[in-house]
Amino acid sequence: MRIDKLLANSGFGTRTEVKKLLKTGIVAVDNTVVLNGKFHVYPNVSSITVGGEQVDYKEFVYFMMNKPQGYISATEDRRLQTVLELLKPEHSAMKPFPAGRLDRDTEGFLLLTNDGQLAHQLLSPRKHVTKRYYAIVDGEVTSEDIVLFQQGVQLDDGYVAKEAHLEILTSGQQSEIELTITEGKFHQVKRMFEAIGKKVVYLKRISIGPLSLDPALALGQYRALHDQELTLLQSTTNQFKSQLLSKQAIKFYTKEGCHLCDEALQLLHELQQSNDFSIEIIDIYASDELVEKFSLMIPVVELDEEVIQFGQIDRGTVLEKLENRPD
């Protein structure tokens, strides 16, 4: 990684500001002054100091935010305020994004991270990561509604929601409830109650998987996840991965001298090391039939009858394709 990028991501300013900082001669790598922003460093190996102070670089950041109403769960918007505007500049520099979304008028637990793989795992419906909400509902919520939610209510577009756990805190003309779901459809909680003739007037997410919103966080405040919290979250997202990826071997069709093939194969081997599945490498020139079938779409991976073309190497896309295979 270039030293200017590392320093910019660590909150030392923009690339231009970091360039000026380097010219002052106060940046050192392994006790050697560095003036050139293109100088390459190894974050987990090199000792990097600015003005004698050690730079503690972290590739990924994980923030728990108590999202207030009035902000949208997006990285940028021309008209509306985004949750990223609530971050300090040194944290914004790490380019986190919301892992999931909360409606503009919804409060509560929002996870912000730049770890795309973890975000994908949290959002994948096959992971069954729970999200728990507190809501105030116009109308009397009853035990019959609990049964309906367990069975799965049909939304306005015909989609039948997955089983949800409804807990009634108070019931009357206006009820208080907590609802646990494993999906994240558009306006899902509100639409589920609309499906049974009731209206959500206040909504707050209070937990994601094993993590609950820190009660010490006021609206608009956030903090980094503790190490124990991150470990819990990662264990939750990984618990199904091995089972999903070990269902069958992956057929990888390749040809000698293909640069893109080499990159794709390297990616698959990396995935193989961290997950339980096997790779069968097939030379397409082994038979005329394969040449005809795959000569114009190299490299490719075949899962059952589905063929994935590696037009662009993308770890998240590959994982999603692997994990969304039929059981």
Characterization of the model:
The protein is an alpha+beta fold and 327 residues long. The chain has eleven helices and 17 strands. Helix 1 crosses helix 2.
Q: Major sheet: size, sense and barrel closure?
A: 9 strands, mixed
Helix count equals 11
Number of strands: 17
- Contiguous runs where pLDDT drops below 50 for at least 5 residues: 240-249, 294-298, 303-315
| SSE succession | HHEEEEEHEEHEHEEHEEEHHEHEHEEH
Q: What fraction of residues sit in β-strands?
A: 15-25%
List the helices and strands and how they pair.
Elements lengths: L2 H7 L5 H9 L3 E3 L2 E2 L14 E3 L2 E2 L7 E6 L21 H4 L4 E2 L8 E7 L2 H8 L7 E8 L4 H9 L13 E6 L3 E8 L6 H8 L3 E10 L2 E2 L9 E3 L2 H12 L2 H5 L4 E5 L4 H16 L4 E5 L4 H7 L5 E4 L2 E4 L5 H9 L4
Helix pairs in contact: 1-2
Features:
11 helices; alpha+beta; 17 strands; 327 residues; 4-stranded antiparallel sheet
What is the compact description of this entry?
The chain is about 30% helix and about 25% strand. The chain is built from eleven helices and 17 strands. About 10% of the residues have low confidence.
